[in-house]
Amino acid sequence: MAERKSAKAAAGSSSQNGSDVPLQEFPMPKTELVQKFHVFYLGVTYVSRPIGMDIINGAIENLLSSTGKEEWTPVILSIADTTVAVIKEKEEEEEVLVECRVRFLSFMGVGRDVHTFAFIMDTGNQHFQCHVFWCDPNAGSVSEAVQAACVLRYQKCLVARPPSQRPGSSSSPSSDSVTRRVTTSVKRSVQSLIDTLKPKKQPSELPQQ
After folding, report:
1. 126 close to 148: Cβ distance less than 8 angstroms
2. Per-residue pLDDT at 143
């Protein structure tokens, strides 16, 4: 009987002590930020180089001239920090038409028409695909979202590297040169879009000579 009582007492004291232990809050898993845009997908065309606004504009003009609006596909352009996906909505389920890892996105830009947007995907073996879209009211928001995804991807790569391999060190590799090219080109294309949208001065507003 004495042993049973002592066992109960020990159990009671352990449960009491357990209740005094503060509960630890475990961090919630981080979810990937995804932005979605309803746009029209004009299609894809192969291009000769992975970068260049001349390449982007040429692909856009090629698809604009070879397709009619009735042939454009309404899609959802889903932009995350790791993947850019072109999704076609269906009654039963969604169909992924294109899926491009951000790391393989070599260039992007807003076309001469501010509604047009395109990005170039490196598919390997010196093959490059240019995907073209029509955006309403303009391609500014889509362009900024892709830029943000590229910048975030680049930042994650920097954090994952050992200090000796980060930019500024003598042994820094160029494995993220594609991402740096994209972020630079995106900034230029966004700036050109902003300049295009600025109201132009009327002749009467021009300074008198």
Report:
1. no
2. 94
Question: Is 37 in contact with 76 (CB distance < 8 Å)?
Answer: yes
Predicted local distance difference test score (pLDDT) of residue 90: 80
CA quadruple 143, 147, 150, 156: dihedral sign: negative
DSSP 209: -
DSSP three-state, residue 98: strand
Tell me the C-alpha distance between 77 and 35, whole Å: 8
The answer to whether residues 118 and 100 touch, using CB atoms and an 8 Å cutoff, is no
Tell me what pLDDT residue 50 has. Answer: 95
SS3 call for 146 = helix
Q: From the CA atom positions of the chain, what is the Rg in Å?
A: 27
Give the pLDDT confidence of 147-170 residue by residue, as tens digits: 888 888 777 766 655 555 545 554
The amino acid at 9: A
Regions in the chain scoring below 70 on pLDDT: 1-32, 157-209
75 Cβ contact list (under 8 Å, min separation 6) = 38, 39, 40, 41, 86, 87, 88, 89, 97
Please give the DSSP secondary-structure letter assigned to residue 165. G
Under DSSP, the state recorded for 115 is T
